[in-house]
Amino acid sequence: MNPTPTLHETLQQAQQLGLERLDAQMLLLHALGRSPHDRAWLMAHDGDMLIEEAAARWEVLLQCRRAGEPVAYLLGEKAFFGLSLAVDARVLVPRPDTEVLVQWALDVLPATGGATPPRMLDLGTGSGAIALALARHRPDTQITATDASADALAVAQANARRLGLPVRFAHGTWLSAVPGERFDVIASNPPYIAEGDPHLPALRFEPRSALTSGPDGLDAIKTIINQGCAALCPGGWLLLEHGHDQAQAVRALLQCAGFAHVSSRTDLAGIERCSGGCWAQQR
Fold this sequence. Notes:
Blueprint lengths: L6 H10 L4 H11 L7 H6 L7 H15 L4 H5 L1 E4 L2 E4 L11 H11 L10 E5 L5 H9 L4 E6 L2 H14 L4 E4 L11 E6 L30 H10 L3 E10 L5 H10 L3 E7 L5 E8 L4
Helix pairs in contact: 1-2, 2-4, 6-7
């Protein structure tokens, strides 16, 4: 490799070291002080030399990525449902799979024009992804987001301020953060990975408390289902993201708790990624 490589040569080196092409492009653009999404500029300037200052930044990013640190943490941002969210190691990186949950919530939220605005709750909000996406698309809805982690709430609150989206935040574990309140939709992407899962080492940079939940990964989901019954308006919906092989178990838990219209929705890969049900019982 030349002492002063071109941008093209720099990307080639990164791929030889095992980085995916898109990751390498985004990180190189970030090192150059450009938008990580400006790949057209990168292709048009692939013969440019990598200047020394950018090379130093690139080397740090390259080594961090090779060690397994998520690209989103290195860039400090992640796109989600049309929003650009600031993220760091205090929160999980929002995944495209969770957009399925957002769309389902949009589908079941009561229509506008009622006597009172619809009320929606995002449990375990992390970066605020679900709550903020819903606030952008349903500004008529009163949205509350909770998290047991004060650090995660700080990230979500900062995202809400920067995006100018009105979300109420509450600190606490699951429904204990909003005692006595009722909602039309409760949505959650809770921890659902089983303790000891072989995939966990690859996720070591993300907060473990937001990933694992008991020996089968279902502890948090069971708690939310048990508590959610008392926090839903009649006809309200509880929507849960879960693991690729947990849909049947989650549907059974919802049915056992008395939910109706229990079903699952698939992600872009055709995997059942979210399950939910309607709480039709009167109190």
